[in-house]
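Batch 3, record 17
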Amino acid sequence: MSEKLYRLVTQNNQIDLHLSGRWTLSNLGDIEAKLVLEFEQGLDQLRLGKTTLGGASQKIVYSMYAEKIEAVDTSAVLIFKKLENLVRTFNTDSEIHYVDLPNEFASLKDKLAEYDLNQPHEVAHKFVSPSDILAAFGLASLNLFKAFWEIPQLFGLFVYGLFEILRRPFEFKFTSMVFHLQQMTIPAIAIVASVSFMVGAVLTEQAVVRLPGFGTETFVVGFIGMVTARETSILLTGMLVAGRTSSAITAEIGSMRMNEEIDAMKVMGLDVMKFLVMPRAIAMLLTLPILTFISIVSGFAGSGVLLYMRYEMSFNEFVSLIYNGVEISDIGTAMVKTPFIAISMVLVACSEGLKVRSNAASLGYHTTVSVVKSLFLVIIIDSIIAIYFTQISTFGGW
Amino acid sequence: MQNNLTNENEDIIVIENLRSQFGDNIVHDDLNLTIKRGIITCIVGGSGTGKSVLLRTMTGLKKPEAGSVKVLGLVPFNEAKGGGLARKWGVLFQDGALFSSLSVLDNIMLPMKEQLGIGKRFASELAYMKLFLVGLDEAVGQFMPSELSGGMRKRVALARALALDPDILFLDEPTAGLDPIAAAQFDELLLDLTHALGISVVMITHDLDSIFKICENVAVLADGQVIVVDKLNAVLKFDHAWVQEYFSGPRGRQIFGQHERNNLTGKII
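Prediction for the assembled complex:
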């Protein structure tokens, strides 16, 4: 704004404010503070110029000339009220004149006549101190472990749901389950296969290079095959599924909750467990072994392709080495892990989805929590079962 | 309000030969509508006649397939992104569309801070004043949108729509979902504010009470066109099956009768 919107004249007992131009919010942002400051300074001058007996401020005459004003809006009215307030605080008996006010201003002023400028505004302070950060870290860590208290409860609900299915198998939402199975499996195959292929190749390469001596390739195949079958396959699949499926389940159920669809189901007497959770749980139960198997095969393929390209090992030799090096129980171990991981992931994802409240931030929060817990559970459950099988195999088991 | 010198009869929205379609479904065909400054214009029409599509077109959220739409002489679809018109209109969405991660006060301050660069202190003072204008308590400022009742959410959304003292206020079914008392209060608030602030209002509504109480002009949408835009009394006499059924049906007659009685007895409604 190049032109000046106001001219303030202070003399004797008078303050004259001449207004011109457009007094609308787009012009007032910058001048509001300046005008109030100048006005206060003007009042101070008056006070100094004429010290009355007893130190009280004298009566003044404040006039606002608005004949040249082109437009006003509510923000201008707020400023005028502020100035009026300053004059009244200076001396309550002061005279205030508004000259040549536009009609619009009068109606705005009436509308705001009762608005009390001096009421204190509460402003929320959000100060973060280092100890707050430490406390937040501690709380977040505790919450992660608290998640485990929920798991037995959720598992109980799942078993109950399973019995319900067995009791009335025809009421199971088979179509829904197939839909979710398709959603969880088919789009995931490419990513699971390619990631497993690359990890298989990299592990093989690393093992061949690091292990000393000639002909290590032949030993490496069996070892890497075993590691792929027992551990990397299920870990990689679990993590990818946690990332793409757990989050999807939570977001889906969460947005249903935000949209009051869950409430609608409840009042219609439809069981959330039966309609939403069980189809997803069964689908996940089926999808995880499928994807894990694909991951194992892709891992082998990665290993084989690398050995063929870099160390000229023939396909036949590779297959026979895998055949000798990897036992069926290695693949079995991975498969035994899948239902535990699948059920925990899907239950956590559903329960986080059901905790979503009616705002966008909570949807984001619970989706994050769902993925974090799922990843954590994949690793924890995998470790527990791996340790268990290692222990029993020393006693002649698997 | 923004400009005292503007002609009261100026056309603020001019729509000519508008066609809107989704795939093969033609919603509007050769639609013409002119909306005047300084009055409250209601757009009515049966479900599926494209009232919301029209509002979305006027606010630049949808590009028209053919024809021209001008708001204050500008093309909304081009301006909506640039923000040229964003400072001149306020839009009240049906459920308020308050930003759920911001407090009520921050919601109202957002357009002031982002569009005009108003400082935080002045913006918060203005925001509290807007809360007062829409009849809400000071304390509401610190609430989050999820803590508000339906009526309060509408009022906060109105305060946000009024944040920049717009020339035009677009309202999408402002009284839908409110109880009759809250709806009546909201109508009074709208009438009061728009007259005090001199805002032109374009609203979609199904609420016959609102139409009789606050609308000055009524535009009726039917068969993909605006079949009539006129004062309410003239529209009531308009010869079209849907219009007659809408206003002269049992509910329409009852409400019309009430308003007639109130007018005769001079009671302020």
